Amino acid sequence: MKPENPATESVAIIQVKRWLKEVVGLDRAIVFTIFARVWQSAAGLITIFLIARLLSPVQQGYYYTFVSLVALQIVFELGFSFVIQQMASHERANLTISANYEVGGDPVAHARLASVLQKTVRWYSIAAVLMVGSLIFAGFYFFSHHQRGALDAGWKIPWCCVALAASITFQIDPILAFLEGCGYVANVARLRMGQAVLGSLLAWSALILHHGLYAPAMMITGIATTGIAWLYRRRHFLLSLLRYDPGEHIIQWRTEVWPFQWKIAVSWISSYFIFQLFNPVLFAYRGAVSAGQMGMSLNVASALQTIAISWINTKSAPFGTMIARKQYVELDRIFFRSLRQSVTVCAIGAAILLAALTFINYRNIPFSHRLLPAQDLGLLFFAVIANIVVFAEALYLRAHKQEKFLLNSILTALFVAASTLYLGRLYGARGMIVGYLTTVLVISLGQGTYTFLKYRKIWHAE
To answer: Reduced to 3 states, what is the DSSP secondary structure of residue 143?
Structure first.
């Protein structure tokens, strides 16, 4: 058998790579991000199996409510990571960074880039201390008042471990956002893949050793450990910026950033009420078992969304650079192509998951009772598809260092919170999901698309 011509083979490989990049939209950043998301999704299924196998329905409720309550850190994060990423990407447009992390180019941009990192580290160091105390207090208050006398699930020490571990990752994430803004999107995506792997392995170890409520803390610890090790290897670059004197070019946060950040902060806090209120409300109104079903179902929906949104999310920093250079035609070309790819992946994934759940229900596998019914999950997936469009539109506008989705976020949060509290008390999980989907379609998607089209036209006409 004759060997293939190496030249022909290399041409074929080049054509495949071009097809993957142009048609499917895959680049290095997306590939690593998808690997991380696929791992998270596959690992999530294993975690779901272990939870269903090794935790009681009550412990399952505590597990997922832990995850929802730790998301309260968003009150201290205030959307700052996204602002950091955009600030860094706009300054990076006028700089060069060598393979040895030596910064060249505009000295003003260099000084401003250093100033961004310095302010980032200063704020997050203070906020982490405030956050850990607040999380521990909030957890003790909530679980002490809503145990319903079922049993002491042994939640106190695990909850303290979750809060402490979260305070560490809280300080790592903004530095990763800064590096993404500097152009290291693919590198950070590869790191996140490693974080996902180690975090999952540690969480599974806790579950298998029958310390299930420690699993969230072990997951976060794995993420933190990997992040610290990765940043340590890049310490010279980061330390050089932290020691750099920006002089008169220091970032004026009050005038340059705060007008953008406070709107992002309100939007980020609003997102808590949009995405994280279901589990605590069901825990309080319907008990830990119902909260556990909702938590596991949201976990499946979240896995689908995080994979599909990779086509958009990895473009955040490049969008900022294109906008700084006024490359609007290229910006729109990449944005709309990525959005189509993201929605297509989400729709296909939703269909596959619903088919799998229908099969599980048909076979009457006991595991199916740990999830919401297929009809409810279908409504949830429909909301996920709409959310991807809204997320993409918001990211596009925010890459201009403007927050025009503030009203949208507030209205969505208010209506979702109201419908969750009211319909959750009367109709349980299905009432919550119907209220959520209605709000997403009418307010979030409807008003959001109007805002997107309006400001895209105004800004790019300038």
So the answer is: helix
The pLDDT-based confidence of 1 (bands split at 50, 70, 90) is very low
Q: What is the C-alpha to C-alpha distance for residues 414 and 60, in angstroms, rounded to an integer? A: 28
What CA–CA distance (Å, rounded) separates 295 from 402? 33
Q: First and final CA of the chain: distance in angstroms?
A: 63
Residue 384: both structure tokens together: 């996920």
Q: Which residues pair with 95 in a beta bridge?
A: 105
Whole-number Å distance between alpha carbons of 389 and 304: 14
DSSP lists the bridge partners of residue 97 as 103
The whole-angstrom distance between residue 446's C-alpha and the CA centroid of its chain comes to: 23
Query: Phi and psi at residue 363, in whole multiples of 5°?
Result: -80, -5
Mean pLDDT, range 126-139, rounded to an integer: 90
CA–CA distances in Å: residue 180 to residues 82, 215, 390, 400: 10, 29, 22, 16
Give the pLDDT mean for 103-120. Answer: 91
Please answer whether residues 165 and 224 qualify as being in contact, where contact means their C-beta atoms are separated by less than 8 angstroms: yes
Cβ 187 vs Cβ 179: under 8 Å: yes
Q: Where are the alpha helices (DSSP H) in 209-276?
A: 215-232, 235-243, 258-275
Nearest residue to 212 via CA among 253, 161, 141: 161
- Each residue's pLDDT tens digit, 137-155: 988 888 887 765 545 568 8
The answer to whether the Cα torsion of 122, 193, 217, 424 is positive or negative is positive
Helix (H, G, I), strand (E, B) or coil at 97: strand
Closest CA to 70 of 122, 135, 25, 117: 135
The CA–CA distances, whole Å, from 177 to 171, 312, 426 equal 11, 15, 41
Q: How far apart are CA 246 and CA 117, in angstroms?
A: 11
Rounded mean pLDDT, 119-135? 90
Contact call for residues 304 and 353 (beta carbons, < 8 A): yes
* Residue 96: strand pairing partners: 104
What string of DSSP letters covers 34-103? Answer: HHHHHHHHHHHHHHHHHHHHHS-HHHHHHHHHHHHHHGGGHHHHTTHHHHHHHHHHHHHTTEEE-TT--E
Radius of gyration of the chain (CA): 23
Give residue-wise pLDDT tens across range 257-302: 787 778 777 877 777 667 678 888 888 888 878 888 888 888 888 8
- Which three-class secondary structure state does DSSP give residue 280? helix
What's the predicted TM-score (pTM) here? 0.68
